[in-house]
UniProtKB/TrEMBL annotation:
It comes from Nocardioides bruguierae. The middle region has homology to RecA with ATPase motifs including the RadA KNRFG motif, while the C-terminus is homologous to Lon protease. This is DNA repair protein RadA. GO terms for cellular component: cytosol. ATP binds at residues 96-103. The gene is radA. PROSITE patterns: RECA_2 (PS50162). InterPro entries: AAA+_ATPase, DNA_repair_RadA, P-loop_NTPase, RecA_ATP-bd, Ribosomal_Su5_D2-typ_SF, Ribsml_uS5_D2-typ_fold_subgr, Rubredoxin_2.
Length: 464
C-alpha cells in the first residue's frame, strides 16, 4: 500500500509573532513567549488553476514611471529619509515607542499634504476626533483638505476611503483596526495581517500613499507578525529618549531609496520641528579641557554627527566593581576596557567604570571605539587629551586601529565645526605614524590604540 507523502499542515499559531507549528507547545519557538500558542483555524485548500489576467504583461521599457514620481511630504527631513518624498501607492509603516511623537509627526505630514490641495484622510483608532483636533489647533495643522475620522472597524474605514478618495491615507494605528469575520481581537496576528493586506491592496489599486502607525514591543521591535514588514514598501523607526526632545526617524527598509538615511527632529510645544544641523546637541561646551571627555564622529545614515563621550573611572569599594554605560554598546565598551588593560597597561579591574554620551545620543558604531578609549584613559590618569580633538577609529582585539567608512566626510564635518586635530587609523599601505592636514585641521594617523594615546600626551606605564 502506497504511503501518503503529504505533510501535516500547521495547526497551532503563536498570537504574538505568528509562528506556526503542527503540535501544541507551551512556549513559542520564535519569540519565546509563554502561553501564546493556540489552535489556529484551518483554511481551505487554495485554488491552483489559472485565473484571468486583468492587465497583460508588457516590456519593462514600456512601463510608465510618472505615476510613481516622488511628491514632497512638506517635511524636508522626512523626505530625506524616504529618498525624495512620498510615492503614490506606497505603503509605509512607521513604528516607535509610545509618546515618542509618531502621531504629531504624521499630523504635520497630513497637514502639509493638504496645504498643497491634495486631499488627505487621517484615521485615528486610539483617540477621538476632538482630541486630534485639539492637537491640530496647537500645531497649526487645520486645513480644508484634511479629513479626519475616528474608526476602529475595517469596513467603515474602507467606506471612508471610498467617499473621500484621498491621495494620502494615515492610519493611527494598524493594531487598533479590526476586521469583521476574522478570528482574533484587534492587534492580534490574524487581524493585523488581514487589515494590513486590505489597506495595502486599496493603496495599490487606487494609487493612495498609505502610512500605517505600528506599535513596538518592550525590546523595541515592531509588534505583530513579521510578515507585516514584508508587506509594506517602507519601514521607518521613530526613535528618541524620553528625557530628551531630540528624535530620529530611521529607514529600516525602503524600496524607493536608500536605507542608510536618518531624519532629525525636535519635539516642541508647537509641534515637531526639523533639525538640519543636530551636531551641537551632542557636544558639551566646556570652558576648559576636562579629563574623561572625548568627541567621536559617527555616521547616522550618510550624515556625520559629532557626539561627546564622557567617562568616569574611580576606585570601587565593592568586591565586584560597577560597569554602567548609557548611550553606548556595553559589549563594545567592555571590549575596549579589556584591550586597554591587555595592551596599554591600564588596570581597571578594581575601579568603577561609567561611560555615557551627551544629549541622549546613541553610539553603536565601532568608529567610536577610539573616543571611548581616550575618555577612559583620560579619566583614569586624570589628564586631559587636549581641546579641539576628535577621535575616529575601530579598535581590534590586538590593539590595532582599523579603518572606518566615510572618513573624509567625518573629517570635513569636524573641520567645519572648528575642531583642530583628529586621530584616525592609517591609510592602506602606510608604514608608520604620520601627520597631514585636511581642510585646515591636523590629522594624525596611529596604527594602534597605544600610539594614539601617546599622541595626545596620555603617559602610559606598562605594568608587569
Amino acid at each position: 500500500m502506497a504511503r501518503s507523502t503529504s505533510r501535516s499542515r500547521p495547526a497551532y499559531r503563536c498570537s504574538e509573532c505568528g509562528w506556526e507549528t503542527v503540535k501544541w507547545v507551551g512556549r513559542c519557538g520564535e519569540c519565546q513567549a509563554w502561553g501564546s500558542v493556540a489552535e489556529a483555524a484551518t483554511s481551505p485548500t487554495p485554488r491552483t488553476e489559472a485565473a484571468p489576467v486583468a492587465r497583460p504583461a508588457v516590456p519593462i521599457g514600456q512601463v510608465s514611471v510618472e505615476e510613481s514620481a516622488f511628491r514632497s511630504s512638506g517635511v524636508p527631513e522626512l523626505d530625506r529619509v524616504l529618498g525624495g518624498g512620498l510615492v503614490p501607492g506606497a505603503a509605509i509603516l512607521l513604528a516607535g515607542e509610545p509618546g515618542v511623537g509618531k502621531s504629531t509627526l504624521l499630523l504635520e505630514v497630513a497637514a502639509q499634504t493638504a496645504r498643497y490641495r491634495r486631499r488627505t484622510l487621517y484615521v485615528t483608532g486610539e483617540e477621538s476626533a476632538s482630541q486630534v483636533r485639539l492637537r491640530a489647533d496647537r500645531t497649526g495643522s487645520v486645513q480644508d483638505e484634511l479629513f479626519l475620522a475616528a474608526e476602529t472597524d475595517l469596513g467603515a474605514l474602507l467606506t471612508h476611503i471610498e467617499e473621500t478618495r484621498p491621495e494620502l491615507l494615515v492610519v493611527d494605528s494598524v493594531q487598533t483596526i479590526g476586521a469583521a469575520g476574522v478570528d482574533g481581537v484587534p492587534g492580534g496576528v490574524t487581524q493585523v495581517k488581514e487589515v494590513a493586506a486590505a489597506l495595502i491592496r486599496v493603496a495599490k489599486t487606487r494609487n493612495i500613499t498609505t502610512v500605517l502607525v505600528g506599535h513596538v514591543t518592550k525590546d523595541g521591535s515592531i509588534a505583530g507578525p513579521r510578515v507585516l514588514e514584508h508587506l509594506v514598501d517602507v519601514v521607518l523607526h521613530f526613535e528618541g529618549d524620553r528625557n530628551s526632545r531630540f528624535r530620529m526617524v530611521r529607514a529600516m527598509k525602503n524600496r524607493f531609496g536608500p536605507v542608510d538615511e536618518v531624519g532629525c527632529f525636535e519635539l516642541a510645544q508647537s509641534g515637531i520641528l526639523a533639525v538640519t544641523d543636530p551636531t551641537g546637541l551632542f557636544v558639551e561646551q566646556h570652558h576648559a579641557p576636562v579629563p574623561g571627555t572625548c568627541v567621536a564622529v559617527t555616521m547616522e545614515g550618510r550624515r556625520p554627527l559629532l557626539a561627546e563621550v564622557q567617562a568616569l573611572v574611580s576606585d570601587s569599594p565593592l568586591e565586584k566593581p560597577r560597569r554602567t554605560f548609557s548611550g553606548l554598546d556595553s559589549a563594545r565598551v567592555a571590549m575596549v576596557v579589556a584591550v586597554l588593560e591587555k595592551h596599554c597597561g591600564m588596570r581597571m579591574h578594581k575601579q568603577d567604570v561609567f561611560a555615557s554620551t551627551v544629549g541622549g545620543a546613541r553610539l553603536h558604531e565601532p568608529a567610536s571605539d577610539l573616543a571611548v578609549a581616550l575618555a577612559l584613559t583620560s579619566s583614569l590618569r586624570g589628564e586631559t587629551p587636549g581641546s579641539g580633538l576628535v577621535a575616529i577609529g575601530e579598535i581590534g582585539l590586538s590593539g590595532e586601529l582599523r579603518r572606518v567608512r566615510d572618513l573624509p566626510q567625518r573629517l570635513a564635518e569636524a573641520a567645519r565645526l572648528g575642531f583642530s586635530m583628529a586621530i584616525v587609523p592609517p591609510e592602506p599601505g602606510s608604514k608608520g605614524p604620520r601627520r597631514r592636514e585636511v581642510e585646515g585641521m591636523a590629522v594624525a594617523e596611529a596604527p594602534s590604540v597605544r600610539q594614539a594615546l601617546a599622541l595626545v600626551g596620555l603617559n602610559l606605564q606598562r605594568e608587569t
